[in-house]
């Protein structure tokens, strides 16, 4: 009897149609192919043609199907009917919801627009939401950057016109040494994984600097388990060694930085410490050929790094002199910093020598001619093949701004920025800081704000202060407390509004910001603030409007809920005006579009703002006849022009001779073109413009043609950041606008124009002999914010989170598998499960962020592991530092930018009896969507 093999279909048809859009499961914005069957989502894979991921897709991206079908999705607008925090709502119509919001907001706008505080989370549409807030007229708008990585962004822009990740990337094709600082796995994960794979296959070396060896650090060739908060000291020790050995790129520094620019060294001058300038405001250098003072940018000038200028008995020195004097000081020698950093002196020297060896002994030369802004033509492009990348790990400290500046200075001293093999900017960066707006705060009842909310101050005159010197913004951004807070201070909004400091507000309006749980410091305190009532029994914060796609913890604390769509049901714009998806070799933007229609009574939040803006008669949202200008967000994306010829999307615009990219008028079919092209548009940079972007004439002309600039924006890097010195001068008594006396010393100390290091503020406020342990959170690759831990697939990867302890602490406390610990900070206490991890700084503990959930939220079962074994370190952190006896409560933030200092936390640990669930335990909140089924299964198609 013959054997017959069974017939197996090895290539089953998984879809009837493929719809291409952009992922939203993290901030990578990868391209995805959404396979549809019978009108439903059947399968999600990466788009091989997409410039970001080139077909690669991570676990989060693939699990988007579960996010789209999550039982926690909100179903209709909600009005609170029980006390705040109870989760008791009734479903209402959109018309009623929008009418309630209009009734609250219209009187505010007519009488006192600042009584609206409008803050958004990781919404990726900030150019639009800020435009709405600006037209409303409130000064109180910002997004999540103030508690994420504003230190990295601001430090980079003030120093060199851009920073890591969305601003730029390593030259993956030529880098020979890649060094990462404080990088977890959640940000830019697919491009970094692809890049590391590429350079390791080529034999390049990866050095990871992080207290925790997970993810990228686990695959690094060398791991540096640094003590948290000391990265800046380590970096400045590397600078010390490079200067001591002469391993810096002098030609690069002379041509492309302000290292040769002269500094006013006359202590009697009101311009002491400022850069010397000519009558036109151009900074001055000594020309090596003539020995004379000359503006830095004149044709043929060769700036002299060594020459000083003697005038009226005072010797004015170039910035390079000040750099050498400061960082050659023995305080930065490896022996002086080793113990504090947790790195041996020999290790510091070896890393510095390796940076120098690769940068200078393995120089890359590309046979590509280019012309610089002084008119000099170069026959080749020379590169230093050392590239750096850093993220929140070095940013989220009270010394984070200066630490990030130190890292940018390190790569500039090596000559490895915007050269082959080094760090490369992505359009629309680089931008000189002068090309960015300054913050605006002038409020006029019934009128728009006088300009953009956020920006980059150049000195005290740009602060957001009222005429009486009090803060103009509820978060106190752009004040003497944190003058250069380019992204605002989202983590301070609720506590300031509750305290009525600097003033009371009427309505808190938030989007996708889980401020009642994992996105806030002092979680218990913030919950109390949101529910607190005054002597009349009224809520201290009278109205709270919130928009989210899911039943998060924050939903329970709002009075009115606008239910958002999932990312597969909406239009979105990943714009050059905002947070684009560019690569170093190309400008690129993208869209999301409704690959499926919602099966609930929900609307995309941005479309809701179009409707609400029209109801409030906001300029920009109504036509001259008073009718609604944009029917929805798709209409806005297509037809809005920020200025003539420049809109949210750069592709397929209407030019004089037909369709064009870059500059052009609105095109009614623009979104259709994006959809046909896979959801994105790419415009490649000419080869001669690929490197040296700030100084390359070809790049600047290309950028003007695309609409990034209206005219070339050549500039040099600012190793010495003059705006910082202007604030120091004010603290020293110069100028009309003066800081309060209690801030003078802090401003003089921390706003130094050259990078410095100082201990994290919490180290000075707690007894470090008692609180000996550093505590950190880190996001896993499979999760992003709190979104992922409701996801059926992703929960199987991270259903709960232990606190990881290094071997030293594990053994000292006698821990065993299955044990629990009591963890105490100066602010609070938690009791949590622990686990052993050897690859960890010996004085540091850590856990995954945002795994722990509150009972009743996210449609999870009341006994879900996220609620019984999951936890947050947030309960141990406060938005204010512990008191220091001066009668003041200082913000737990960076004094320059106001970034939340999440990672300064100090704790002590002791073994504890295992409770029934992690502590603190919160009472369940009632879910407006109920709980998900015990078994989630569905079949798509037949």
From TrEMBL:
SUPFAM superfamilies listed in its UniProt record: ADC-like, Formate dehydrogenase/DMSO reductase, domains 1-3
One GO cellular component term: cell envelope
Molecular function (Gene Ontology), one example: 4 iron, 4 sulfur cluster binding
Keywords: 4Fe-4S, Iron, Iron-sulfur, Metal-binding, Oxidoreductase
Compartment(s) of residence: Cell envelope
Cofactor(s) needed by this chain: [4Fe-4S] cluster
4Fe-4S Mo/W bis-MGD-type domain sequence ranges: 16-72
UniProt main location, coarse: other
Protein name: Anaerobic selenocysteine-containing dehydrogenase
Record's compositionally biased regions (Basic and acidic residues): 932-942
Similarity-based family: Belongs to the prokaryotic molybdopterin-containing oxidoreductase family.
Disordered: annotated segments: 914-942
Keyword set includes Metal-binding: yes
Species the sequence originates in: Roseovarius pacificus
Presence of keyword Iron: yes
